[in-house]
Design goal:
Layout: H1 13-18, H2 25-90, H3 96-109, E1 115-124, E2 128-135, H4 152-164, E3 168-169, E4 173-174, E5 185-194, H5 203-208, E6 210-219, H6 220-227, H7 231-235, E7 236-242, E8 250-253, E9 265-271, E10 274-282, H8 292-314, H9 320-343, E11 348-353, E12 359-362, H10 364-370, H11 387-398, E13 402-411, E14 417-429, E15 432-441, H12 443-457, H13 467-478, E16 487-495, H14 497-504, H15 506-522, E17 529-534, E18 537-542, H16 547-562, E19 566-568, E20 571-573, E21 576-584, H17 591-607, E22 613-615, H18 620-640, E23 644-650, E24 652-653, E25 663-671, E26 677-678, H19 680-689, H20 693-706, E27 720-725, H21 727-730, H22 735-746, E28 753-758, H23 759-764, H24 766-779, E29 782-788, H25 797-800, E30 805-808, H26 810-813, H27 820-835, E31 839-842, H28 848-857, E32 861-862, E33 871-872, H29 874-881
Parallel strand pairs: 21-22, 25-27, 27-28, 28-29, 29-30, 30-31, 31-32
Antiparallel strand pairs: 1-2, 1-6, 3-5, 4-5, 5-6, 7-8, 7-10, 9-10, 11-12, 11-15, 13-14, 14-15, 16-18, 16-21, 17-18, 19-20, 23-25, 23-33, 24-32, 25-26
Helix pairs in contact: 2-3, 2-8, 8-9, 14-15, 17-18, 18-19, 20-22
Cofactor: Mg(2+)
GO molecular function, one term: catalytic activity
Transmembrane segments: 27-45, 292-314
């Protein structure tokens, strides 16, 4: 069918020309030409805008990465300096060999091809900072004895860094130890060094303990070439300048070609007190498009031929009879040319009749994507899959000028669908009104957008929803309209999953998680939401059910997990899960509280023996769990803010009288945010439950040994200082090495140290405790068996435990005056202890009567409020009063 023929009426050239009377042929031709050029220009301009916007967006995103990439090598260098700083905190007297060895060890994990030297400049009076350690020494001999104070800007930056304990970056400088022919520019990253001891927290401490500065010198150009490799340098010509000296010009220029007509992008990198201006000049222009020549050429030719065709029709009035046959042939040739050229367009082009809406022309791209819609006499609105858009297209066909640039799902004759950006316009061609539709296939772009959206909401390993999307579902469920059935939140935590990672590696653990996710997905009811919250934790939202149904869902999930047989590398594993269930039957609940309740219920399931389901209830166990969680957080904050305190309580001889060097036990306290002193009975249970005791014990040991001469108020060394150790610390294989290393470092006499271990811990881990005790006793330390008698253990353990001191549990001492059984037990412990050659100490001595009874029974030493009330250690008093160093 002809593009210009009526579908139901044959019109001769003469009849057509009758409609053109009064209108000159040039006017028709010019109108058609302008219309074709306008449509071509619209297509070309739209394509150019899309291409330019896309390219500029890529440039902006790439340019945003440049400052971060420039900071990266300096941050790695600062991390290496921070590690070296820690070495000096442990031993501030390092020689050249040790310095080189530490530097080589650190360089293995942070290889920098641009590394020039690592140096240490010691602080001298003045102050001056003179390099005394440099590695490698080859080619860096000139740095030795160089004084940083000769460079005033670097000196000022170093002093500021000392006060803030932050790394500083120098301005680019000419490297002295390199020849002019190599890369002569370099930068230096510096970090202050403090004398050995605890980490300085305040500015006065840092100034007082300042002993020098560490520095790593880097060649600038190789460093930048390593950092800005690949896409950065292929896309931009990059130039860097010092922001503090804009008139100094660029100290780095990547060179090469660049698009002179494109505006440069500017960014700024700030690190270590330096700011660099970054100029990024694109290497290609944005005003070009791969499709632009084709669109302009094809559109221009089509418009020209179309106008020539109309000119020919309008000017054949007088020659119609003679040249009728010739005009018909030319018309057909012109139309064929139009078809051929239009078929070259990559866009879908369709022309339809305005009265019936039936498509009577489709170019090659449209036929390939939609099928032969012309032969099928398909109406233009029928292309739209969406009923609402189809109705709007019907309304437009009835009367409308332009309907366009909409994203719609188009349907082909075969039933396949694809996304397109479509525009429809009403056009007049040879006195005939038609509908022109131009569409571009955007299916790939939509697929990419869908993929990005999926990746943003799903876990890559399990293909389940991620935590952010899960919390969105929960938040929506919390605010949904009332009147609906209750729903449940399930918190699923795998039991002992870490063992699989430890035994077979993380790859096995990942594979197990993927299989578990697939198996759990099969157990879901329609509409329920399953997500991986992180690690080995999963969440499930189950809608419209009561508590009994929720327990059925949870138990089905538990049995599904328990029944999975996982095989990896010849081993077969089974796992179980503890599941916490929270029923949501009312509004007004926050997401934070709901997740906390679910975690609490899951914890209760684990506490009850694992591989079980627990429903959240506001009972005593739950309240205690929440209280302990709060105390655990308070302990962590107190440690970070240095609010843990030490007190000492003296242990007095009962037989020989007081005198000589003081014996005492160190006691732990916590100062809360309001300044109140909290006794250990409130927070130590939470510390034990949440695994914080090893950290606390190490803190106490480190503080006690580092300030050994500043514990007692008299300022004298203790005759014996007792330090308590928890069961979790005893199970740490590295604790003995930690203690012995601190004893050597702080030169504490081991004979003045006593470590107390409770009887229950000793009996529970007898072999490990004996090994630990023997190592400390071999070094000269004493061991006390604390709370003896409370665990109702056999006296036979005393023969196997190489302890020096037995501390009788206070429960037997406090009722010693009126409980004959307590008196008998104390007598027996004292006699057996003396026969084994051990000292016997009584705790909780609260009055003079008990004190006298203990003396009569032959107890060696006593401890309690009757003898001495605990008081803060001296070094913490000095720190509070401002009199300490």
């Amino acid at each position: 069918m002809s593009l210009y023929s009526e579908p139901d009426t044959a019109v001769s050239p003469g009849d057509a020309l009758l409609g053109l009377r009064g209108i000159s042929p040039p006017a028709w031709a010019l109108t058609a030409l302008l219309l074709g050029l306008v449509l071509t220009g619209l297509l070309a301009y739209r394509d150019m805008l899309v291409q330019r916007e896309h390219l500029r967006g890529q440039w902006e995103a790439l340019a945003d990465r440049v400052p971060r990439q420039l900071q990266s090598p300096f941050e790695r260098t600062a991390a290496q300096l921070r590690a070296m700083q820690t070495v000096f905190l442990a031993n501030d007297r390092i020689d050249q060999a040790q310095f080189a060895r530490y530097n080589d060890n650190l360089m293995r994990s942070n290889r920098l091809g641009s590394h020039l030297s690592t140096g240490f400049a010691r602080r001298m009076p003045g102050p001056r900072y003179v390099y005394e350690l440099v590695t490698p020494q080859r080619n860096n001999e000139s740095l030795l004895q160089f004084d940083i104070a000769r460079q005033r800007p670097n000196m000022q930056a170093l002093l500021a860094a000392r006060d803030a304990d932050t790394p500083v970056l120098s301005a680019p400088f000419r490297v002295r130890q390199l020849s002019q022919g190599s890369h002569p520019l370099g930068v230096t990253v510096r970090l202050p060094v403090y004398s050995s001891g605890p980490y300085p927290r305040t500015v006065p401490e840092r100034r007082a303990r300042d002993i020098g500065a560490l520095a790593i010198a880097l060649r600038l150009q190789p460093l930048l070439q390593e950092t800005l490799h690949g896409t950065m340098l292929e896309t931009f010509r990059i130039r860097l300048a010092n922001a503090a000296e804009p008139a100094g010009g660029y100290f780095y220029d990547s060179g090469g070609r660049f698009a002179a007509g494109e505006s440069a992008l500017h960014r700024q990198m700030a690190y270590g007190g330096q700011r660099w201006n970054i100029e990024l000049q694109p290497r290609m222009a944005t005003g070009t498009s791969d499709n632009l020549p084709l669109i302009l050429t094809a559109g221009g030719l089509i418009s020209l031929l179309f106008s020539m065709l109309l000119w020919s029709l309008a000017s054949t009035r007088r020659r119609a009879v003679v040249l009728g046959t010739e005009m018909s042939e030319r018309f057909q040739q012109s139309e064929e040319r139009f078809r051929v050229l239009n078929d070259l367009l990559p866009a879908l082009v369709l022309v339809a009749d305005t009265r019936s809406g039936v498509i009577h022309y489709a170019n090659q791209a449209a036929r390939q994507r939609l099928g032969d819609v012309v032969a099928a006499e398909r109406p233009l609105p029928a292309l739209f899959s969406d009923p609402q858009l189809r109705a709007q297209a019907d309304a437009f066909c009835a009367g409308g000028d332009y309907w366009g640039n909409i994203e719609a799902l188009l349907s082909s004759l075969s039933g396949t669908t694809f996304w397109a950006n479509a525009a429809i316009a009403r056009v007049n061609v040879v006195d005939r009104e038609s509908l022109l539709m131009v569409a571009s296939d955007i299916s790939e772009q939509r697929k990419l957008n869908d993929l990005l959206s999926y990746q943003a909401t799903h876990d890559a390993l399990t293909d389940l929803y991620n935590r952010r999307e899960f919390e969105r579902f929960v938040s929506q469920a919390l605010v949904r309209p009332g009147g609906r059935r209750p729903w449940a939140l399930l918190y699923i935590d795998l039991d002992q999953f870490k063992l699989i990672n430890d035994i077979s590696g993380h790859m096995a653990g990942d594979q197990l998680l993927a299989q578990l996710a697939f198996a759990m997905r099969q157990q879901l009811r329609e509409g329920d939401v399953l997500a991986r919250l992180g690690g080995d934790e999963f969440g499930l939202v189950a809608y419209d059910l009561d508590q009994e149904e929720a327990l059925q869902v949870a138990d089905r999930m538990r049995r599904c997990i328990e029944g999975l047989m996982f095989v990896w590398d010849g081993r077969t594993y089974t796992v179980s899960a503890s599941i916490g269930v929270v029923m949501v039957e009312r509004g007004g609940i926050s997401l934070k509280h709901l997740l906390a309740w679910a975690d609490t219920a899951c914890y209760q399931a684990k506490e009850s023996g694992r591989n079980r389901v627990h429903v959240y209830r506001e009972d005593d166990a739950t309240s205690r769990r929440q209280s302990e969680m709060q105390w655990a957080n308070k302990i962590r904050w107190a440690m970070e803010e240095n609010r843990l305190l030490l007190e000492y309580q003296q242990i007095q001889p009962l037989q020989d009288g007081a005198g000589g060097e003081p014996h005492f036990e160190l006691l732990l306290r916590l100062r809360d945010e309001d300044g109140r002193i909290i006794s250990p009975g409130f927070f130590l249970p939470a510390a034990e439950r949440y695994g914080l005791m090893p950290t606390i014990d190490r803190w106490v040991i480190q503080q006690a040994l580092a300030n050994f001469s500043r514990l007692h108020a008299s300022g004298t060394l203790p005759g014996l200082c007792a330090i308590n150790l928890s069961g979790a610390s005893i199970e740490d294989d590295d604790l003995a090495d930690f203690i012995l290393d601190l004893i050597r470092r702080h030169q504490v006499p081991p004979a003045r140290l006593c470590f107390e271990i409770t009887e229950t811990v000793a009996v529970r881990s007898l072999l490990k405790v004996v090994q630990f005790i023997e190592r400390l006793r071999a070094a000269g330390c004493s061991i006390a068996l604390d709370d003896f008698g409370a665990g109702m253990s056999s006296f036979g353990y005393l023969k196997n435990l190489p302890a020096d001191i037995i501390k009788i549990d206070g429960s037997f001492i406090q009722d010693l005056d009126h409980a004959p059984m307590s008196r008998t037990i104390v007598t027996a412990i004292t006699q057996i202890g003396h026969q084994l050659g051990k000292k016997v100490v009584a705790e909780w001595v609260s009055n003079a009567s008990i004190l006298q009874t203990l003396r009569d029974l032959g107890v060696d030493m006593g401890q309690g409020f009757e003898l001495h009330k605990p008081q803060p250690v001296l070094f913490q008093q000095q720190a509070v009063d401002g009199t300490g160093s």
